[in-house]
Amino acid sequence: KVCLNISVGLALEELLVTAEKQDCLTIGIYESAKLLNADPDNVVLCVLAADNEDDVALQIHFTLLQSFCCDSGITILRVSGVQRLQQLLGAVDANRNQEEQGDLHCMLVTNPQADHCRLQEVGTYCQESRRLDQWVPELVLQER
Description:
- This protein has one domain: CATH 3.30.1330.30.
- The chain contains 5 helices and 5 strands, in the order αβαβαβαβαβ.
- Strands 1-4-2-3-5 form a 5-stranded mixed beta sheet, sandwiched between helices.
- Pfam families: Ribosomal_L7Ae.
């Protein structure tokens, strides 16, 4: 499979959609924490999503998750563009309230084969960012 040079944002979007279809995506802070505690070796990517940096409780959750992921050697990526994630993962439904839509603030990709090409591209971006002293790489997802 040839890895095409596409934008990292698009690679991440495709990776998340593929992982969800393959049932390899854990969504939600609580669900993610449970999985990290039970089976961290199967987690290949942790995506932390927030548009509002002022939410102190969310930032505390992120700090704990980041620390655990760093200790376990799990790649971490922070993204803004929660609405784009809702579009991608089908979480927006007018008949459901906010809590039932799913907590997209934390997502774990658990299958190394989820979409190898896209996972590799996202991982390379994260490595490059860390080499440039960005401890937790960040990415902005554009609404469409």
